[in-house]
Structure formats: structure tokens, C-alpha cells
Amino acid sequence: FKGALLEGSTSTARAKVEGCSLLRFQRGRSRHRVKAIKERSFSQPRSHTKSLYVNATSGSQPLESEPGAYGGSKGVLDSVKNAVDAFYRFSRPHTVVGTALSIVSVSLLSVEKLADISPLFFTGMLEAVAAALMMNIYIVGLNQLTDIEIDKVNKPYLPLASGEFSVGTGVLIVTSFSIMSFWLGWVIKSWPLFWALSISFVLGTAYSINLPLLRWKRFAFVAALCILAVRAVIVQICFYLHMQMHVFGRSAIFSRPLIFATAFMSFFSVVIALFKDIPDMEGDKIFGIRSFTVQLGQKRVFWTCIALLEIAYGIAMFIGAASPYMWSKGITVIGHAMLALLLWNRAKSVDLTSKTAIASCYMFVWKLFYAEYLLIPLVR
After folding, report:
1. d(C-alpha 31, C-alpha 243), whole Å
2. Which residue windows are transmembrane per the record (predicted)?
3. Do 257 and 320 touch, CB atoms closer than 8 A?
4. pTM for the model
5. Three-point CA angle 16, 20, 25, nearest 5°
6. Whether residue 246 sits in one domain with residue 143
7. Element (DSSP H or E) covering residue 323
8. Exposure of 174 by Cβ count < 10 A (0-12 exposed, 13-18 middle, 19+ buried)?
């Protein structure tokens, strides 16, 4: 009995020791879990931390959250970002900015007195900008649809050339934007605006689409005329008449500033038409596009563009100096002199053997284009 008692006491003691050890192990494990949860609370959202506490206390779920819990939403967000970025490149943002600025600038030419700057003015201007931007996206999108193989050489970053957009997606975008542009022009019931959209649509389609007697971009002179007609004539005159006649209900008057804007932008449009093909010479040669750059060479066309712009700036300074308003005289003369100097300094530094350098200079010319539209409303 004494031996049995001793054996029982020993067993009891051993059980207590094992129980204490198990309790310490469970406490240690609990502390480890709490520590892990606290560490995760600094690196994960509060809602996610809450789910970890639930998992730790329930004991029925693993401590870590499922690896795909947030992966799906992140993937959707990345897809949206990529789609927006691709559409941004598809829209050719430098042309979008140029179109919007030109319409705002020309709209300001119709302002005769301070009272004209009213909600009516802004409504009419924004209607014109919205319709024109939709047509702009149609035109640049159609050009990309018909130039996919060329752009794989010249502009591989564009979404159709890179494969980010399918041809079907491109067709859907250009069709939708052309319909919305015409719909808005019809709803507004402004004939100058509707004619601006219609002529731009016809010229933009004829410029790009590969049908018999069309695809005018193959012919350097005709291609330049298309761009000049839209950028220099249609934008200045039609959108001015939209504001003058439809918005303000006045008779059509071709003012001195409007004539200046049309003449100056004729120079600029020719320069853009010539300059845009300089960095694209390689692809144009391969696919039989007989641009002036292909025919005459990059250097000759480049310096022709610079000379045309410098002549335009000289004429602008002369016209500005003849203004009867001293404030307009000072701003237009000094402003155009500064732009001419900036252009000359930039042109001298361009490496004509580098496609990247030429493309960068082309975008600089677009910035000068934007700057001109800031000066045009000040020509009086």
C-alpha cells in the first residue's frame, strides 16, 4: 500500500508538472499569436487586422488571411489604371490640349465687353470644346487604326501598335466618339459648330482611311493642306462664328484679331504638318508614305520648319507693333520675340541624328503652339 501510495504521489506530481508545462506552452503560444497580430496591425488595414483577431480567438481558421483576399481588388485597380493610361495615349493628349486651348482662345476673341464673360459665354464655349474633343479623338484614333503596322516602327508605345487595345476596341472607341460628337453638335443647334465638326470629320477620314482616292496622308502636299484647313481655318473661323452668332446672337464680323489668328496659325499648321513626319521617316519609307521628310531629308525639312516659324513670329511682332493699344503692343511684341528666341535656341541644340531628340523638339513646337493661343486673345 505504501509503495502504491508512493507511486500514486509520484504520478500526481508528474501530472502537475506536465500540466504546468502544457499551461506555459499554451500561454507562450498565445503570447506569440498576440505578438504576431500586433506586428501585422502596423502593416495591414484596420479591417484586415480585425479579421486576424477573430481568427486568433476562434481557433477554427488559420492565423494569416487568405493570400487572395486583396489580390483581386488590386488586380482590378491595376487593370483600370492600365486602361486609362492606354486611352490617354490613344487620345494623343498633345492634340487634345491644342484643340481645347485653341477653342478657348478663339472664343475670347468674340468678347467685346466685360459683360460678355457670363454663364452664357462659358456654356457655349464648353459645348464647343466637348464636341470638338470628341471629334479630335475620332480623327487621331482612326489614324492609328489605319497605321498599326507603321506605328509598330514609328510609335510602338501607342496602344494599338503595342497590342494593349485590339482593333475591335479601337473601332468601338472611334465610332462612339464620332457619334457623340455629331449628336452633341446637333443638340446644340449651332450651324457653325456643326459645320466645323462635319468638315473635320470628312478631312480626318480622307486623310487616314485606306480607300481608293483617299488616304491623303500618302501625298505630302495634300496632307499638309488637310491639317492647315482644320487647324488654321476651321478652328479659327467656325468656332469664332459659333460664339459670335449662336451664343451672342451677333452678325458675323471678321475682326483684325481673327484675321491675325487665321494667318498665323496657317504658318503653324504647315510647320506641324511637316515636323510631325521628321521622326517618322523610317516607318514612312518602309510603307510608302511619300512625306516631305522622305523626299527632301530630315535636315532640310527641320530647318524649313524653323524658318517658317521665325518668319511667323517676325510678322506677329510687326502686327503687334501696329496695334493702337499700348498694352497689346507691348505684350504681343515682347511675347513673340521671346518665343522666337526660345525656338532658335532649342533648334540649335537638336541632334538631327537622334529620333528621340527630334521627337522631343516636335513636342516643344506644340508647346509654342499652346503659348501662341495664350497670346492671340491679347492681339487687338
Report:
1. 74
2. 120-145, 165-186, 193-213, 219-241, 253-275, 301-319, 326-344, 356-376
3. no
4. 0.78
5. 145
6. yes
7. none
8. buried
Write the burial class of residue 349 (CB in 10 Å: 0-12 exposed, 13-18 middle, 19+ buried): exposed
CA distance 227 to 232: 8
Taking CA atoms, 146 is separated from 161, 167, 190, 293, in Å, by 11, 10, 31, 20
Are 273 and 334 members of one domain? yes
Q: Other CB atoms closer than 10 Å to residue 307's CB: what's the count? A: 12
**Of residues 323, 338, 346, 347, the one with CA closest to residue 371:** 338
365 found inside a domain = yes
Mean pLDDT, 10 residues at a time, the chain of 380 residues: 40 43 46 44 41 41 48 82 96 97 96 94 98 98 96 95 96 98 97 97 96 92 93 95 96 91 94 93 87 92 97 96 94 97 97 94 96 94
Residues 112, 118, 124, 127, CA torsion sign: positive
**Which CATH number characterizes residue 157's domain?**
1.10.357.140
| Domain termination residue (choose one: 253, 286, 310) | 253
Place of cell 483684325: 256
Place of cell 492609328: 144
3-state secondary structure of 290: strand
Residue 86: inside a domain:
no
Domain that holds residue 378: 254-380
Q: Based on the domain organization, do 229 and 245 belong to the same domain? A: yes
pLDDT at 88: 97
CA–CA dist 265, 125 (Å, integer):
20
Task: Indicate whether 52 and 41 sit together in one domain.
Answer: yes
Residue indicated by cell numbers 457623340: 180
Could you tell me the CA-to-CA distances from 96 to 90, 119, 139, 269, 370 in Å, in that order? 11, 24, 11, 15, 11
Per the domain annotation, does 237 fall within a domain? yes
296 and 379 co-located in one domain: yes
For the chain, the domain total comes to 3
Examine the domain organization and report whether 246 and 117 are in the same domain.
Answer: yes
13: in domain: no
* Residue 352 CB contacts under 8 Å (≥ 6 apart), including other chains: 298, 299, 302, 358
Cα 301 to Cα 295: distance, rounded to the nearest angstrom = 9
Question: CA neighbours within 13 Å on the CB side: how many for 124?
Answer: 27
Cell of 210: 485606306
